[in-house]
Amino acid sequence: MISFEFPVNERTRSLLRLEQLYRRLAYFVDGEHANEHHSALLTLFELMETASRADLKADLLQELERQKQLLEPLHDNPAIEQHTLDGLLDEIELTTSRLLELTGKFGQHLRENEWLMAIKQRAGIPGGTCQFDLPSYFLWQLKPAEERRADLNRWAAPLMPTAGAARILLKLLRDSGKTHHYLARKGMFQQMSGGKVVQLIRVSFDESLGVLPELSANKYALNIRFVSAVTGEVRARQTDADVDFELTFCKF
User: Fold this and answer.
1) Are the C-beta atoms of residues 219 and 195 closer than 8 Å to each other?
2) Torsion of CA 125, 127, 129, 134, to 10 degrees
3) What pLDDT, in 10s, does the model give residues 159-208?
4) Which of 109-147 are b and which e, b meaning 16 or more Cβ less than 10 Å from the residue's Cβ?
5) SUPFAM superfamilies attached here (predicted)?
6) Which residues of 1-26 are buried (b: 16+ CB within 10 A; e: fewer)?
7) DSSP readout, 46-115?
8) Would you state the CATH architecture of domain 177-250?
9) Residues 217 and 205 sit within 8 Å (Cβ to Cβ)
10) Which of 26, 71, 196, 237 is in the most buried spot, having the most CB atoms within 10 Å?
C-alpha cells in the first residue's frame, strides 16, 4: 500500500512542512560527507524561513494546551492504557515548557550569525557557495565530520522544541483517523461532506496500480481523481480503470 496525505487547512500544511524539513535535517546531519552537511545547513535555512511566521509559536502552544485538556479526563476511562496516556501528557508538558522558553523571532540566533547569513545569501545564487565565493565556508567543510556535526547540532538546538510540537500534534492527528473503503469508478470519486470538518485526509491504495490521486476538498464536497503515475514529459491522464482505495479522515 502507498499513502498520500492532503492537509485541509493552513495549520496542518505548516505541520507537514515542518515534519519534512526536520526529517531531512536529521538525515543530513547524521551524514559524514561535507556535501551532506552542506545540505543540512540549507535545510536549516529553509526551516528558519518556514517557521518564521509570527503566530506559529502561539498556534502550537494553543493546540498543545487544547489536546492536554482533552486527554486529561481520559484518566477515568478504563479502556485507556494509563501508562501510555501519562507518557503522552508528560511529553506535551515538556514540549510546552521548551516552547515557552523560546524568546524572540524563530531562528533569530541564526540571523544574528553573520557568517551563516553570508552563506545563506550566497546559497540563493546557483553555484554561489564555491571556494572562491566563501573561502571560510570552504575551510569549515574541510573540518572533521564530528566537528561539523557538533556545529550543526548547536545551531539546530534552539529550533528543536518546534520539531517536538509538530511531531506530537501530527501523531495525535493521524491516530484520530477513521478509515473507509471505497471504489473510484474509472478513476473518479466524489463524496458530499455535509459540513464535516477535518484537518487531514489520507488516501491509500495498492502501489502496483500505477496511479496518483488528485484531491480537492471543502466543507461541501470531496473530489478525488486518479491519474496515471507518469514521469518525464508525458502529461498525466485520468485512469480508465476502477481504483479500490482507502480514505482516512483525521481531525482533532
Assistant:
1) yes
2) -100
3) 899 999 999 999 999 999 999 999 999 999 999 876 678 899 999 999 99
4) bbeeeeebeebbeebeeeeebeeeebeebeebbeeeeee
5) YacF-like
6) eeeebbbbeebbebbbbbeebbebbe
7) HHHHHT--TTHHHHHHHHHHHHHHHHGGGGG-TTS-HHHHHHHHHHHHHHHHHHHH--SSTTHHHHT-HH
8) Sandwich (2.60)
9) no
10) 71
Q: Which three cell numbers stand for residue 54?
A: 509570527
Rounded CA-CA distance 62/166 in Å is 13
pLDDT in tens, 96-146: 999 998 877 788 899 999 999 999 999 989 999 999 999 999 999 999 999
Beta bridge partners of 201: 6, 249
Amino acid (one-letter) located at 251: K
The reply to whether 177-250 shares the fold of 8-170 is no
Place of cell 506535551: 92
